[in-house]
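Most newcomers find our protein records easier to grasp once they have seen one. Read left to right, the backbone structure tokens trace the chain's path through space. Nothing more is needed to start thinking about how sequence determines fold. An example says more than a description, so a record of this kind follows:
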Amino acid sequence: MTPTSDSGGDPTDRSRYELIRAKHGLVPIVSVASKVRWCGLILLVAALAAPIVATLPDPVQQTYFSGDPTRTSLGAAAVVVLGEVFLTLAGVGLTVLAAYRRRITDISESQVWELVGAEDALTGFGFVTGALGTAAGIGLLASGFAGVGRIEWLIAHGITPYFPLATYPTTPRVTTGVALFGALLTLALGVSVAEE
């Protein structure tokens, strides 16, 4: 096996940062640009909050909502917004990290380890906290499609999908707006990182 066959290309085409990472067996499976784009794609899924709640079956809307479901502050919507904020911050942070890394002309091994740690932290921040919060919140909002009986079962087990949250104005409409803003921002940043 040649030295270039398992490293993905000619070593002279790779930055010192990538070479030091590879030397220690830390070859990233996914590029920073891909991670930023994935943050944007997950945010696009989160933008379905308002359409999901707007299309819930009539019995669910009549039982759990007193007005327009998309204008009702919900705890599950707050969870989604929290996940959206984490995903957006992770996408922005990874972009800043990539730009910073490209500006360093002579990178030391200690700087590589700092950058690796920062990239891993931002990746975990976005994909663990952000994606998990988004998936859990969207799942709760969509649980009404299973019918009133399933929601009653969830409530009996301590989970209230349409818990009203008066302290924060986190309606499904706000959730969708935040998600679209974050998605457009992170997808644009993903393109800019890939072009550099």
User: Anything to note?
Assistant: The chain has a mean pLDDT of 86. Residues 109-142 form the longest helix (34 residues). Helices lie at 16-23, 32-46, 49-54, 58-64, 75-103, 109-142, 148-156, 172-195.
